[in-house]
Amino acid sequence: QSVLTQPPSVSAAPGQMVTISCSGSISNIGNNYVSWYQQLPGTVPKLVIYDSNKRPSGTPDRFSGSKSGTSATLGITGLQTGDEADYYCGTWDSSLSAGMVFGGGTKLTVL
Amino acid sequence: QVQLQESGPGLVKPSETLSLTCTVSGGSISGYYWNWIRQSPGKGLEWIGYIFHSGSTKYNPSLKSRVSISVDTSKNQFSLKLTSVTAADTAVYYCARQWVYTSSSGPLDYWGQGTLVTVSS
Is the CB of A105 less than 8 angstroms away from the CB of B45? Predict the structure, then answer.
């Protein structure tokens, strides 16, 4: 059971928009920045959003991030087949069991 | 361009110690947290721990009793030791660089290619 909760899967058609949610608590998302990682099939996770809403160089502006309270959201517009991947949210948890925590991952299918 | 490369045995016997090294090239090991993260087959990401170039460490509480991370700044390397392994420790092990933030969580911006470690007799 992951500390951060993500939907197991989402799907949408090419060109459409999709959002992936990441739910946590005050000890993690509520008081820390959130990062999002894209893991294409058989590859290494890649940072696509950091500081909850910033894009590293190389991440298309079709990708966006937001955070409100104890939840974060990754949005992808203009979906492409190449966006099909697993997406993970991650942040720091400041509770007694302090450490970096991830969501369980969301499989994005572009229909 | 910063590059990270994991190295170590791909097969470890149950009850023995898993040892991996991550070599950092293209940049200094100073000024960042250096993490170990693993991913069991078909599963999600699990943080193992990190080390700062000074040697200070932080570990996943669920693994803390079995984990040790060390750094060799002269070789631009950091290493992972996980003792008393079982089949549940079979995973792809990644090393990754993390930005240091004073009051929040920095992102993991560079990752190694990952190395599969299988625990089996």
Answer: yes
